[in-house]
Write a structure and sequence with these properties.
Helix content is about 40%, strand content about 20%. It is of the alpha/beta class and about 375 residues long. Strand 12 (about 310-315), helix 9 and strand 13 (about 340) form a beta-alpha-beta unit. The longest helix has 18 residues, at about 15-30. It is flat, with a radius of gyration of 26 Å.
């Protein structure tokens, strides 16, 4: 038996690397198709034929079988569908995609710049103060102080000998990510909902894996606002809806009110001005033309209510509509929050840099 080996090149890919790349591409396509696995596979097949993604070592049928073996997809009565593991893989791929695109971002965890009675132990030590936890006493430094004063033969231990490890405060953060699902998010041939979903998927994976004590809720808003579970995110679609920003902010504020976290914040991703509110009788009042004072004022009232409850609103605009910009300026002023215009390919960078930075903002307790 004879084997033929091609010359190794730095850009050569192993079968495992190729499978990993194809799986990540499949994850992205599933987000674009709102969880329709069959459609995502059809798109992948077309891309493979156009760009030569498959070879004798990996065919389309073999990839599908690999996805089954990995537990990412399964056969069901309605066809092939995602598994819970597949949904988790989508979140992981979204997180990886966004973080590898960050050029400069804060490193490390969510520590505050304060030391004192905290959670994570540092290598530095200091003199013991009344109220310090005994479990934080540095035995080596303490005994060294005692031996240095009296020697080994006449060992005594005094309070001034005690040294404790410095501890670092870690804040918790309660975040609501609001996603606009009005019809304009897919109008004019521009897909704005897929990047928004990718950010939500990645942010949820970040929090669940690195900051499990943090709270994250997903609120989508169109004619009305509703809470969504993380597992529903890949299947999120837009609808023939107006933009009821007030309802989204109100639901987000109600969710955050129940949390005792020092940092409470709302990240709102939108491409349009508010165009709907509910009237006291429950009827939906709509006006898509210009900035309707009746709608705008009620929405700004909600922004003020958030400010009074110490909830910061950060708005990420994925369009340059002058009406949207004017409204967001007023919203930011009313809430004393922040606003960014972000292109669709940098939305994740803005959100993640801001999220990590915001967790350092507030501190309570300690010395």
């Amino acid at each position: 038996m004879r084997f033929l080996y091609s010359q190794w090149r730095p850009d050569s890919e192993t079968d495992e690397q190729k499978l990993e790349q194809l799986t990540s591409l499949f994850s992205y396509l599933v987000v674009q198709t709102s969880g329709d696995v069959q459609e995502a596979l059809e798109w992948l097949k077309q891309l493979a034929e156009e760009y030569g993604l498959f070879d004798e070592n990996m065919t389309m049928d073999e990839l599908i079988n690999k996805l089954r073996e990995m537990g990412l997809i399964e056969d069901a009565d309605m066809g092939i569908q995602l598994t819970n593991k597949g949904i988790q893989r989508i979140r992981q791929d979204a997180l990886h995609e966004i973080f590898t695109s960050l050029k400069k971002a804060p490193t490390g965890g969510h520590e505050t710049p304060f030391t004192g009675k905290g959670v994570d132990r540092l290598s530095e030590t200091r003199k013991f103060n009344f109220g310090d936890q005994p479990t934080n006493i540095d035995l080596t430094s303490t005994l060294t102080n005692a031996f240095r004063r009296d020697g080994i033969d006449e060992f005594t231990l005094k309070e001034e000998d005690l040294e404790v490890y410095e501890t670092e405060h870690q804040t918790t953060c309660a975040t609501v990510l609001m996603i606009d699902i009005s019809h304009s998010m897919i109008l004019y041939g521009e897909d704005r909902i897929t990047p928004a979903k990718q950010v939500a998927l990645a942010l949820s994976e970040l929090i669940m894996t690195r900051f499990p004590k943090d709270y994250l809720a997903m609120v989508v808003f169109g004619d009305d606002a509703k809470l969504m579970s993380i597992n529903e995110l890949p299947f999120l679609t837009v609808g023939p809806y107006h933009t009821n920003t007030k309802a989204g902010l109100q639901l987000a504020r109600n969710l955050l009110r129940r949390k005792g976290s020092a940092n409470k914040q709302i990240f709102m991703v939108t491409d349009g001005k508010p165009s709907a509110i509910f009237e006291p009788n429950g009827k939906l009042y709509k006006n898509s033309f210009g900035l309707d004072p009746k709608i705008v004022n009620k929405t700004l009232d909600e922004a003020v209510a958030c400010r009074r409850e110490k909830i910061t609103i950060t708005t990420f605009m994925v369009a340059r509509d002058p009406y949207l910009i004017n409204f967001v300026e007023e919203l930011t002023k009313a809430n004393q929050g922040r606003a960014y215009y972000s292109s669709l390919n940098t939305l994740g960078e803005f959100v993640f840099v801001d999220y990590i930075r915001n967790r350092r903002k507030k501190f309570s307790g300690g010395r």
